[in-house]
Amino acid sequence: MIVQACINGARPRDFHPKLPLTAQAMASDAAACVAAGATELHIHPRGTDGRESLGAIDDTVLAVRRACPGTLIGVSTGAWIENDEERTRTAIGAWRELPDYASVNLSEADAPTVMDLLRKRGVGIEAGLASVADAQRFVGLPGHNRVLRILIEIEEQDLSTAREVADGIHAVLERASVRRPILLHGMDATVWPFVALAHQGRWSTRVGLEDGRQLPDGTTAADNAAIVAAAMAIFRVAPVS
Length: 241
Description:
There is one protein chain. By secondary structure, the chain is α/β, with parallel strands linked by helices. It has helices spanning 23-36, 57-67, 79-82, 85-94, 111-121, 132-139, 159-175, 191-200, 224-235, and strands spanning 3-6, 40-43, 72-76, 101-105, 124-129, 149-153, 182-185, 205-207. Strands 7-6-5-4-3-2-1-8 form an eight-stranded parallel sheet. The protein is globular. The two termini are 15 Å apart. This is 3-keto-5-aminohexanoate cleavage protein. Pfam families: BKACE (PF05853).
């Protein structure tokens, strides 16, 4: 069970005054998150224009790695970043400073090819499942058990609906006898209920400005480190058997 810090995602500049958008800002923010208890980092590097870019991976991963030696660093391969399958593949093939892992959304058409490319490059895979259909597609892939972990990421904002989707994904994995670590997280309204659910299920979770800017009491967090500290407070309590 770990708490991963997802420090920026695709959020716009005005989402939060402490949203880190440059390599150095991400490095400093990441170090603060690790100090607050985060075990791993998930980052979305940005180009000089402030937009997400797979071409910015090298400089950003290097800066974060220098600031957080020994901490696993992950990135996104979301199709929207380059908005072109060939550009996405080319960018991944050109990485020099390899992240430790990368998330791949099974809802995206090119996911199997991206996963194969990451394996060839020696990059771990977080298989992102946001629906039962994603889970069914995932378990149908050859070598689906050769991933670093399963990322159950729920975007539905109605909590009961979100729980149903998460339970449905887990049921598909159970029926297929998938035995990979699971990281469960929600978004915005469901962030903290899903942190609690992950803790109770002895799964990992993630928090940070990519997923939401509020603390458990509904107030706006000062920064990513404050969000991580709140999640760590939950995870330090032994789960009820």
